[in-house]
UniProtKB/TrEMBL annotation:
Cleaved signal peptide residues: 1-17
Protein name per the record: peroxidase
Active site: H59
Catalytic activity: 2 a phenolic donor + H2O2 = 2 a phenolic radical donor + 2 H2O
EC number(s) given by UniProt: 1.11.1.7
Key word Iron present: yes
Obligatory cofactor(s): heme b; Ca(2+)
Disulfide bonds: C28-C105, C61-C66
Residues the entry annotates as binding substrate: P152
Site (Transition state stabilizer): R55
Length: 193
């Protein structure tokens, strides 16, 4: 549990600049409850959802920060088509949440915040740690698969992994925390099944 919480702290601390908990409390008070409701509904039919949404959040944040760029469809060159993002799923859940949020509060809630909130809700639904997510991210407009060429790969040596994490301002300890906590979330989900 504390490892998973460290993961979240690491991811969030990378881009905390102007974010705050409850950013939408005036402009779209129901935002977080809408996210939670859609995620809860989707989790009923897919027990892997927490792992899927955590992975989507990690992959989004690792390339140019948590800016939703992995969601942007820009044709063949789209970041989501990068080799390093292979097997990343959960896009349709984010789209379903976005559609409800647009109906409730048009043009207010960013897709990058949806990804961060959805990962949080899915993890807590899987009996993982509950944590607050500062919001107010702006969505990136660039989606270019060449920006995702430095995603960590299973086949990477520890030296390569260290270099890739260091490029993102993450040290060796954070590399271990991220790897172990991602594994532990997956493990807990498998054990629950
Ligand atoms: C994508 O990134 C590469 C490498 O930085 C660049 O050469 C290319 O022009 C970019 N493509 C687009 C459509 O922005």
């Amino acid at each position: 549990m504390s490892l998973a919480l460290s993961l979240v702290t690491v991811i969030l601390s990378v881009s905390l600049a102007d974010l705050k908990v409850g950013f939408y409390s005036n402009t779209c008070p129901q935002a977080e409850s809408i996210v939670r409701r859609v995620v809860s509904g989707a989790a009923l039919s897919d027990p892997n959802l927490p792992a899927i949404l955590l992975r989507l959040h990690f992959h989004d944040c690792f390339v140019e920060g948590c800016d939703g760029s992995i969601l942007v469809d820009n044709g063949a060159i789209s970041e989501k088509n990068a080799f390093g993002h292979e097997g990343v799923r959960g896009f349709e859940i984010v789209e379903a949440i976005k559609a409800e949020l647009e109906a409730a509060c048009p043009g207010v809630v960013s897709c990058s915040d949806i990804v961060a909130l959805a990962a949080r809700d899915a993890i807590s639904l899987a009996n993982g740690p509950a944590y607050e997510v500062p919001t107010g991210r702006r969505d990136g407009l660039v989606s270019n698969m060449s920006l995702a060429k430095d995603m960590p790969e299973i086949s990477d040596t520890i030296q390569i992994l260290k270099a890739k994490f260091m490029q993102k301002g993450l040290n060796a300890k954070e590399l271990v925390l991220l790897s172990v906590s991602r594994a532990s979330v997956l493990y807990e989900i498998l054990v629950d099944q």
